[in-house]
Design goal:
The complex is a heterodimer of chains A (352) and B (298).
Chain A (H helix, E strand, L loop, with lengths): L12 H4 L6 H21 L2 H27 L7 H18 L5 H20 L8 H20 L10 E2 L4 E2 L2 E2 L3 H23 L2 H11 L1 H6 L4 H28 L1 E2 L6 H14 L4 H25 L5 H22 L3 H15 L5
Antiparallel strand pairs in A: 1-4, 2-3
Chain B lengths: L1 H31 L6 H15 L5 H24 L7 H23 L14 E4 L8 E4 H23 L1 H11 L1 H6 L4 H27 L4 H5 L3 H8 L4 H21 L1 H4 L4 H15 L14
Antiparallel strand pairs in B: 1-2
The chains are: A mainly alpha (352), B mainly alpha (298).
């Protein structure tokens, strides 16, 4: 009843091309943003921010990055962790080596460096695709791991990178709430940019390449620049996410933080959340971040405490099972289920 | 010269282990076009099953039982995962095997435990010297590695006989060539997949035995098995001899580079050398040394 387009006529081109053409969607989005920016900081506990919201939001950004590459451009990547690592270590080195470095600028530089590395490892994508490309990105993953373990200059000759207290425009980000707000702002802005990229000319070119690269080439899309752009943008997002992961979530980190398990984690987010969907990146990130917490909380609440080892085994079983389940039931993930739900809602309660 | 040969032999023998894992990949890829990411976890799972059962029973009971477990696993995978996903894109199937991999990793360790287990098969192990008459002091090799090479050779021979001489093998080759054509002349696809996954499971068991005897049965086996990916790239996804030669080349390249280039880069380059080699190789010959030419139709 409430949610329908009937009678909503668009009178300008701007309205026709709006990101959220239905007013209810816009209201919903503003509501969510208002809750996220104002409501949650008022009521949330520090544990909620540090344990769930901050990591989930940062990983959502990484998931958006991977989704651009895998979901929109169809290039499977197992190197997300590597690109996050490049972002994190670049930002770290700029912050400790350049005096008065602005944190945002450091994040952007981290993203930029990750983009460069991404393009480098994306070069083989012109000749290869699918699993072959996955192996090439694995090369990136293991090589980058090795670089940050072996070359001590990157960690300032310590055993791991320990970021100084993050300061933004003279304001120390010393509480989880402040960090959360900064993360939220960056993620929201970058998600909006991503949403606009993928529905514009560039995004359509990516999708054409994903659906059939030969056909895309025939209609005049130049494959190499298109794919490399996807690698660059994707790695930029991952790099910024990595930098935030290091500075705003962990504070101090070792190279293992960004190992291949991180890559898989982000990949699972986009499979479960939805390939080729910005919304899906958020849903998937929230879901994957929440499951381990649930596994640790639910059995205890039910009175059957389980050991840490069992919990981690249970976690991989649940993730593996869920992935198979989603691929069989709904290959486009939770985001697609949401869309189907919305379609149903449009007709409700009078389905012809 | 003696040292160089020693490294070479060590590398080749280490490569045999990679080949064993890669064989399982090739079997499944040939017959069903599925890139089975779970092969490494299958190796771990098979080895764990074997080692834990051997604690309570002798090897000659535990081994057939472990084979039965791997066949049962193949059955479940075929029923639960492959059948509903038939006709999906290759990339979806790949991600499904990723799911299998994670599930099996958790399941195997939850059932069998996650410690490091030593697998004692009563095989000769320890270093030994060969060719003492040719070189001063002889060449140092590991007995277990030689045993692994013999096992790999036997396994490849058995597989070759199976593929070339039996009726099921013929059907397998038909399916590998063309799914639809094979189906239209009455080859039951589901059954073939079951056979292939079972075969891959048993190959995984053998690989797990050899790895387990060398390193101990532990979680890292699943990750070492990732090294089979560059092996496949080098050898080609569809070729059994390719898997063997690719494995040998990767093993050799790794050891030689670690010994001769390692000091320059600061060591530890074994971890990524194989992948880099594969990536560079991909630029020039994407189908691998022995793979079928990749032909795309619009």
């Amino acid at each position: 009843m409430l949610y329908r387009e009937t009678g909503q006529f668009k009178t300008t081109y701007a309205a026709d091309q709006a990101m959220f053409p239905i007013p209810q969607d816009r209201i919903g989005l503003w509501l969510i943003l208002a809750i996220a920016f104002i409501g949650v900081p008022l009521i949330g506990s520090p544990y909620l921010f540090a344990g769930l919201l901050i990591p989930a939001l940062i990983l959502a950004l990484a998931a958006i990055g991977l989704n651009i590459l895998t979901g929109y451009c169809g290039q499977l990547s197992l190197g997300t962790g590597a690109f996050m690592a490049v972002g994190a270590y670049t930002a770290y080195n700029f912050v400790i080596r350049v005096p008065e470095m602005n944190l945002l600028l450091a994040f952007l530089l981290g993203g930029g460096m990750a983009a460069l590395v991404g393009v480098l490892f994306g070069l083989p994508s012109l000749r290869i695709k699918g699993f072959y490309l996955a192996v090439a990105t694995l090369a990136a993953q293991f090589f980058v791991d090795w670089v940050f373990i072996r070359i001590k200059w990157f960690v300032n000759y310590g055993s791991n990178a320990s970021a100084p207290e993050p300061v933004l425009f003279g304001l120390a980000l010393d509480t989880p709430v402040k960090k959360y707000l900064v993360v939220l702002a960056i993620v929201v802005i970058m998600a909006l940019i991503a949403k606009n990229i993928v529905r514009g000319r560039v995004g359509r070119a990516w999708m054409a390449v994903r659906d059939m690269d030969i056909a895309a080439e025939i209609i005049g899309i130049r494959l190499l620049p298109t794919k490399l752009l996807a690698f660059a943008v994707s790695s930029f997002y991952c790099g910024v996410a990595g930098a935030m992961w290091g500075f705003l979530h962990l504070g101090a980190w070792e190279p293992l933080t960004f190992d291949i398990n991180r890559s898989f984690q982000v990949l699972f987010m986009i499979i479960i959340g939805g390939l080729g969907s910005i919304l899906g990146s958020f849903i998937g990130a929230g879901f994957i971040s929440a499951v381990p917490i649930l596994i640790s909380l639910v059995p205890a609440a039910l009175g059957v405490p389980i050991s840490v080892a069992t919990a981690s085994h249970l976690e991989s079983m649940i993730f593996g099972g869920l992935i198979i389940f989603f691929l069989i039931a709904e290959p486009n993930g939770i985001a697609r289920l949401w869309q189907i739900g919305k379609e149903k809602l449009r007709l409700w309660p009078f389905p012809h | 010269m003696g040292f160089f040969l020693e490294v070479t032999i060590g590398g080749l023998l280490a490569g045999v282990l990679y080949s064993l894992v890669a064989l399982g990949f090739v079997l499944i890829f040939k017959a069903s076009g599925v890139f089975n990411f779970a092969q490494g976890t299958m190796v771990l799972f098979a080895a764990l099953s074997l080692v834990r059962m051997m604690e309570v029973m002798p090897f000659w009971i535990a081994f057939p039982l472990a084979c039965a477990i791997m066949i049962a696993l193949a059955f479940v995978i075929e029923r639960v995962v492959l059948r509903p996903l038939v006709n999906q894109e290759a990339i979806i199937l790949f991600m499904a095997t990723l799911g299998i991999s994670f599930f099996l990793e958790g399941f195997g360790q939850a059932v069998w435990g996650s410690d490091i287990y030593t697998l004692n098969l009563g095989l000769p192990s320890g270093p030994t010297f060969i060719l003492e008459s040719v070189f001063d002091g002889g060449l140092l090799v590991e007995k277990l590695d030689i045993f692994a090479a013999i096992v790999a050779g036997a396994l490849v021979t058995a597989l070759a006989v199976f593929f070339q001489k039996t009726k099921v093998g013929l059907a397998l080759r038909a399916v590998a060539d063309d799914h639809q054509a094979a189906q239209s002349i009455g080859v039951p696809l589901n059954y073939i997949w079951l056979v292939v996954w079972s075969a891959a499971g048993i190959v995984a068991l053998v690989a797990g035995m050899v790895w387990g005897a060398k390193l101990g049965v532990q979680f890292s086996i699943a990750f070492v098995a990732l090294k089979a990916l560059p092996v496949l790239i080098l050898g080609g996804f569809t070729s059994v001899p390719g898997a063997i030669i690719g494995g040998l080349l990767i093993g050799l390249g790794e050891k030689l580079s670690e010994v001769y280039l390692g000091p320059v880069f600061g060591g530890g380059i074994e971890n990524w050398f194989a992948y880099m080699l594969a990536m560079i190789f991909l630029m020039f010959r994407p189908q691998g040394l022995f793979g079928d030419r990749i032909i795309e139709r619009v």
